[in-house]
Write a structure and sequence with these properties.
By secondary structure, the protein is mainly beta. The chain has one helix and twelve strands, in the order αββββββββββββ. The chain has a seven-stranded antiparallel β-sheet, with no helix packed on it. It has a five-stranded antiparallel β-sheet with strand order 4-5-8-11-10, with no helix packed on it.
């Protein structure tokens, strides 16, 4: 990709499309099947509505400031993949640190009240202010997946 010489105020996005060719590209370009929700120096967030999948790379700790996304805030830079299911969410979080031995205790604040589908000893959960906070210890480069269910009606 030619980004030019020191572009200022410019942005771009691209997709890797295995199996695409010159004949299929016009149709894919007209309807890519995904939407870019955010692409800036703080985060890259893409949603594929058909697959009910949202992927994000967050470059710093703090609030996401995108109500309705599902994730309200994180405590460390991380990568997150969220799949919406009929019963809840499947959430995969990853510590993208390149330095070996640099583990983190990642906290992810989720919008709403959720409960783990199964006993998960590496996961602690606390709920407050209409949010659920997950605490997941991750080694450098490690990922962890948890299935979350909406709470049972009282």
């Amino acid at each position: 990709l030619d980004h030019g010489v020191r572009p200022d105020g410019a942005d771009y996005a691209y997709a890797i499309l295995p199996g695409a060719d010159a004949e299929t590209m016009p149709a894919i370009s007209a309807n890519p099947g995904f939407e870019i929700l955010r692409n800036d120096t703080n985060a890259q967030i893409v949603r594929h509505p058909g697959a009910q999948l949202t992927g994000m790379v967050l470059y710093g700790a703090g609030s996401i400031n995108m109500p309705g996304l599902g994730i309200a805030a994180v405590s460390h830079p991380c990568a997150i993949l969220i799949r919406t299911t009929k019963t809840g969410l499947t959430l995969t979080v990853a510590n993208p640190a390149y330095e070996l031995g640099e583990g983190i205790d990642l906290e992810v604040a989720l919008e709403g009240t959720w409960r783990p589908d199964a006993d998960d000893r590496s996961l602690t959960r606390a709920g407050n202010n209409g949010q659920t906070t997950l605490r997941v210890p991750l080694a450098a480069g490690e990922s962890h997946t948890v299935v979350l269910l909406a709470p049972l009606p009282e």
